[in-house]
Design a protein that fits this description.
125 residues; mainly alpha; Helix Hairpins; 90% helix; cell membrane
Length: 125
């Protein structure tokens, strides 16, 4: 493989990734909710003028939840494709994937509280 083919392949890969991200955001209500929360938290970051470190941590939390939500959607899609009817083991797989998103969302919420509570307390003191 020459350099030109390599670069063209990477450009196509980025195109597929954008296509997948837009499909996910446009079609999945759960990630739409997460995206709205991410936008609200980004606005809050500007309003409260959070530090660079806080921005980095907040961005990692938002990106982590959005990414994991996408993986959860993919797992559910594969599971439904493989076994369209209800099956106890498929249900367990889907529950575990959803549980992973839930754990990440709870963790991100705790991080958000750690970042924003001091700013909110300062605002009212």
């Amino acid at each position: 493989m020459n350099l030109k083919q390599f670069i063209i392949g990477r450009i196509k890969g980025v195109g597929y990734a954008f296509k997948g991200a837009f499909a996910l955001i446009l079609s999945e209500p759960s990630i739409q909710v997460q995206a709205i929360i991410g936008i609200i938290m980004t606005i809050a970051g500007f309003v409260f003028n959070i530090t660079r470190l806080e921005w980095m941590i907040q961005c990692m939390c938002i990106g982590g939840i959005m990414s994991l939500e996408g993986l959860n959607t993919a797992i559910e899609g594969i599971a439904d494709f493989i076994h369209p009817e209800f099956h106890e083991k498929i249900g367990r797989i889907k529950d575990i994937a959803a549980g992973a998103v839930f754990i990440t969302a709870i963790t991100a919420s705790i991080v958000g509280l750690i970042i924003y509570i001091p700013y909110i307390v300062e605002l009212f003191s």
